[in-house]
Each structure stands twice: as C-alpha cells, then as structure tokens.
Amino acid sequence: MFDIGFSEFFVIGIVALLVLGPERLPRVARTAGHLLGRLQRYVNDVKSDISREMQLDELRKLQAQVEQQVREVERQAQDAGESVSKEVEGLSDQMKAALAEQEKYAAIEKAGVDSTGADVPSEPMAPVADADAQPTPTPTAPAAQLSLDIPPADPLPLPTSEKTVDKA
Q1: Residue 88 neighbours by CB distance under 10 Å
Q2: How many angstroms separate the CA atoms of 85 and 78, rounded?
Q3: How far apart are CA 98 and CA 80, in angstroms?
Q4: Helix residue ranges, H only, the chain
Q5: β partners of residue 57
Q6: Which of 8, 51, 70, 160 could form a disulfide with 4 if both were Cys (CB 3.0 to 4.6 A apart)?
Q7: Cβ neighbours of residue 120 under 8 Å, at least 6 residues apart?
Q8: How do residues 77-107 score in pLDDT, each as one tens digit?
Q9: Residue 20: exposure state from Cβ atoms within 10 A (0-12, 13-18, ≥19)
Q10: Alpha-carbon span 19 to 13, nearest angstrom
Q11: Do 16 and 25 form a contact (C-beta atoms < 8 A)?
Q12: pLDDT tens digit sequence for 28-74
C-alpha cells in the first residue's frame, strides 16, 4: 500500500514512544490499528463495488447483444415465413388454375363435344398405331465392335510329374 519498510516503522515507533510516552502508546496503537482496519475494509468495499459495477456493465452489454441477436433471428424467421406464405399462395393459385382447367375439360367431355366441335365418343379410345410408322429397332452393336482385340496369351508350360528313377 505505502512504500514503507521495516526500518521506517521502527523509527516511527521510537518517535511515538518518545512523544506519547509508555502509558498512552498502547491506546494510540490500538486506535490506529482500528482506523487502519476500517480504512482497509472501506477500500475493499469500494473495490468490490467497482468490480460489481463493471460486471453489471458487462452483463448489460451481453444482454443487449443477446436481445439484438434475438431480434435478428425473429426478423429472419418472419422473412422466411413470408417467403413460404408467398410460395404457398403461388402454388395455391396454380392449383386453382389447374382445377379450373380440369373442370373445363370435364364439362366439355360431359357435353360430348371436344374443343374443335367434333363429337367425342363416350368411351376413351385406345391409341392407334400409325400405319406408316415403323417399329423402332433395338440398338445392337455390330459383332466387330463387340470383339476385343486381345492377342492370345502364350500357353503355360504343363507341370511334369514324371520322375526319372535311375536303376543301376
């Protein structure tokens, strides 16, 4: 706290003993000790108050950041919801148009007249094969393309199991 060494305390104690005398010195030392203790407690309280205020300030900043992030997430969620609802409205409009077209064709079919004015048979017609149409050939590869040009391998030598036994 103060830059006072042991030698300075020793000099101060000797001067206080000479000035105050041996009877009053213990009382004054006790009072000075109480005052220094109070001063230290006061300084510690001030330090802790400052520390708490700094922590509260940091917490307020953190709270503001969290609130800002929450607002950003809410805004993004709202934007996503709006885009989804627009997409759903677009799909709904497409579905309504498709249903209206289907109902139009159903009404025409019920009436028995197609869009050209010709009568439509009551039973659906089977697809008719075109007389000029030729059947589509299935793709086949020429035989020359299928063969692989691999030269024949040299034949492997056959193992010889004959043992020559010399009978002498």
Answers
A1: 10
A2: 10
A3: 27
A4: 6-111, 143-146
A5: none
A6: 8
A7: 108, 109, 112, 113, 114
A8: 999 999 999 999 999 999 999 999 999 888 8
A9: middle
A10: 10
A11: yes
A12: 889 989 999 999 999 999 999 999 999 999 999 999 999 999 999 99
Coil, helix or strand at residue 119: strand
Does residue 112 contact residue 122 with C-beta atoms inside 8 Å? yes
Category of 75 on φ-ψ map: left (φ > 0), alpha (ψ -120 to 50) or beta: alpha
CA–CA separation, 62 vs 56, rounded Å?
Answer: 10
What is the three-state SS of 34-64? HHHHHHHHHHHHHHHHHHHHHHHHHHHHHHH
Rounded to whole angstroms, the Cα distance separating 81 from 136 reads 51
Spatial distance between the Cα atoms of 15 and 26, rounded to a whole number of angstroms:
14
For residue 157 the two structure tokens come to: 């030598």
**Whether the Cβ atoms of residue 20 and residue 28 lie closer than 8 Å to each other:** yes
**The two three-digit tokens of residue 79, written as one number:** 């934007």
The two three-digit tokens of residue 163, written as one number? 């043992």
Q: Which residue has the tokens 């010709």?
A: 118
